[in-house]
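User: For my dataset I need records formatted as: sequence, then structure tokens, nothing else. Please produce one.
Assistant:
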Amino acid sequence: MLTARSFEILEAAIREFIEFGEPVSSNLLYKRHSFGIRPAMIRAELGELAERGYLEQPYHSAGRVPSNRGYEFFAERVIAAERVAARAEELTDLLRHSAWDDLLEHLSRQLGIVTVAGEDSGDTHKSGLETLMEHLPWGSRESMMNVIKDFEALDRRVAAARDVFEDKDFLEVFIGRKSPVTRSDELAVMAADYEVDGRRVCLFAIGPKRMNYEKAAAMLKGLKRGFKFK
């Protein structure tokens, strides 16, 4: 059975991997964190987390990396936190006045990912694709082609996905192929649904699975200020 300490170790391992992009070992966690146990016990905890599907062990590596299930766990904890981005009022004004270029460019620049807005009218606005393409870990030509196909189909999928969020929670996260707007296993999507002066707007933050979930969630939460949201 996984304990509170198990999940503390899992969260620390995922944070380390998101920041540095290298498999995380028990020795590294022992040096950088205080769990009150020795490396051997941390190693056993990592093994248990891997057996439960939260971590994976890359070939020829002693360390662990997050699985899709691990990323989901981490993102859901981030969403449940109360952190809200600074400068929220400025971002809210941009959303209220449909200043899409400025809003999405700001979000994409701050987060290093693609941001997309889908309106009631069916119009789709997006920014940051070039930045995302530079930061994705291209493991193969196939993975690159899957991402390209996703963005070729993005307008259509965003328009269709708006129904997914009706009467849903304010903020949701999708890892890999579970996303309604992308199909690549390389990507993660954080989605928020807003009601802005009688208009419904869906915002999508699309990035690599190593994206900064905390920062993305804080910014998307910040935009809810002043709005009635679903």
